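Structure request: Branched-chain amino acid ABC transporter permease, Variovorax rhizosphaerae.
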Amino acid sequence: MHTAFTILIDGLTYASWLFIVALGLTLVFGVLKILNIAHGSFYALGAYAAASFVGWGASMKWAPGLSLVCMLLAAIAVAVVLAPLTERGLLRFFYGRDEVLLVLVTYAMFLILEDVTKLVWGANPYYVSEPYGLFGNIDIGVQSWVGYDFALVALAVIVGGIVWWGLNRTRQGKIMLAVIHNAEIASSMGVNVSRVYMLAFTVGIFLAALGGAFTAPMISVQPGVSVGVIIVSFAVVIIGGLGSIEGAAIGALIVGLARSFAVHVAPVAELFSIYIVMAVVLMFRPEGLFQRTQTRKI
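Returned structure:
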């Protein structure tokens, strides 16, 4: 019973940040129909920017609690700076082209951003220790967990709720849903599709950077961190169904629990446990668990 509870808590912690990142990936695909290989690079940039912002705040003798604000500002800065450069300066010229070409373009962007991070921050790892101790430890039975892990779970719930509310309860969100359903019809009815693309891509980058920023206190921020993130994020959206918020949540939970189970029960299977789960799901649901029915075009 104790082991099962530990697996559950660790799985939820891993799934929380993964859901935030995968939510941005699935939102960009739902609106722009782009499999963004560079999504992991935005995660890494969020982590690096958070490390820089928190370090700057510490040098200014700010209160430790403001480090959370620094991490949020880091994610916003990454989205504000990179979204216009990427979407307006590059991706917009490839809309309507073959999907494989878009994948290659985002892969090239991934390679460029990897080198940019090395040029700006170097090859040495960064550590963001201040925020991790803000919430103390939480004792449950004989086991003790870091309070920051539970705060990260709460953040994932809040972010998921805000995105769902924004899409389903606001005017701009309903316009975005109309573009997701059929961009051509939405454009013919006066919707500025280009502006919707820009908004969706900005939110997607922000979510990736937010996941990176708030994961930075739990990891060593170093070159190559983006590679593992994009692979696992793709596993999440493939399991849940591309373009589905509910699928991203369930997919992240499945991946988190599968990894946690492997770590505690069969550590040698950790590296491929996620892919086993993905293969099993795709055997029975090739379109993913929550893939919406696609309109057939004649």
